[in-house]
Amino acid sequence: MDANKFYSNQVNIENLIETDPRLASLPAVYYEFKRAVQGPDLDFERIEQIILKDSHLIVRLLKIVNSAFYSFSSKVETISHAISVIGTEQLGYLVLSTAIMDKFSGIPQDVIDMDSYWRHSISCGLVSKKLAEYKGELNSEKYFIFGMLHDIGRLIMCMNIPNRNIEVLIRSNSDNKAVHLIEAEELGFDHAQLGGALLRKWDLPKVHQEVVEFHHDPSGALLFPFEVAHCHLADIIANTLKLGCSGESAIVPELDEHAWAMARPPQSISMEVIKDEVEEVFEETARAFLSH
Hints:
The chain is mostly helical.
């Protein structure tokens, strides 16, 4: 490849984010919710009123809370009831995931199949959640949101450089090489780095930023290597499940051995068990998150 041509094809990662007003911030409801739960006095009534402003959000949250994602024995009828049974932190993860789904709802179908994209993200989240549960993590919902966010950089590519994105996918298949490696060669960065940059702009927690940025390069994670390892492994397992597609090629990224050592399930839990448990709850969970 001609060196001058290569460098002329590089894309500025900041320009992709900063020049697009659609990426300026998350929906206001997320920031209102965040301020309410982080304030000095936790006011459950105020939190409920923030969510009640958005009828679409109410319906989706209640569908998720009443789905196989939680598998409660009795139905949760109201937002106040949801807060009492899952807590504000867990509800915050659901508000964040639905806010991000709404943020990218306008990408044309001929650019990327958004239903398939979110199905892959949900399956990755469910695998990550399961891996965390096997490790005894009490707040496994946190690991679910990692899966929901991990490929968000791909959506920025689909929005702002769709033709370059297609070129990368074609070369990935022809070269039989993982798409994030081709992105780095062709663009100067990969979708994981792009996603991490977006989450920094949105001022999301650093753990989310690092998980997204390093889910293909877990050895680069300095602050949250355990969480990054879970997302890395979950993404690879989710790709083998083929429950949706994030728009990547069919080439599954290489498993990082150190990440495997940190995130692997107990020996009594086989890959078949993980896949069976995820598939058991996947369709109902996906319907809840994808409801309009």
